[in-house]
DNA sequence: GTACTGATTTTCT
DNA sequence: GAAAATCAGTACC
């Protein structure tokens, strides 16, 4: 298995033109309107998958895009999948981390607290790296053309595993 | 170091 | 038919 620490995220909320749920329910974003705590996975640019955690109540259509991870466990497996040895390149982008973790469309709608793909709170992990609450920086989102100005991207300050500063 | 380009396909208009 | 929450490689400074 592989394990990583989430170091960069973006929020996609209701009434947000950049959110896939903005224009209403479709076949693709169906899971966005389901209960929180599930995975929303989709293919972007025909080549890469993006991984989101669905947030909020049923019908709200909100999610958090996981943009970057700090690799912790299963690193050799990640290196094999990504075809690179550089730790910083394993998970520093939404398309990269899905590759490193082996996430594809079959993980869409999978529960995040039970099953092959899970997210834990840092408080539940016995790891010295998780003890101190890190400083978080808030900026605008990346790679979108709508609602660019909204400050909904969050990353850990000075962390080398984020996709960019 | 930064800048630009091609790859590739699902989805919705 | 066009756009899309991207990445790796190449060219150039």
| Strand line-up across the major sheet | 2-3-4-1-6-5
* General form: globular
Q: Which blocks of ≥5 consecutive residues have pLDDT under 50?
A: none
Rg over alpha carbons: 15 Å
Considering DSSP H and I runs of 4 or more, what fraction of the residues is helical? Answer: 10-25%
| Count, helices | 4
State the end-to-end CA separation. Answer: 29 Å
- List how many beta strands DSSP finds: 6
The major sheet is characterized as: 6 strands, antiparallel
**Overall SS class:** alpha+beta
Give me the strand/helix succession: EEEEHHHHEE
Portion of residues in beta strands equals 25-35%
Average pLDDT for all residues = 93
Classify the oligomer: single chain
What would you say this structure looks like, in words?
By secondary structure, the protein is α+β, with helices and mostly antiparallel strands. Helix content is 15%, strand content 27%. The chain has four helices and six strands, in the order E-E-E-E-H-H-H-H-E-E. Strands 2-3-4-1-6-5 form a six-stranded antiparallel beta sheet. Helix 1 crosses helix 3 (94-101). The structure holds a DNA duplex (13 and 13 nucleotides).
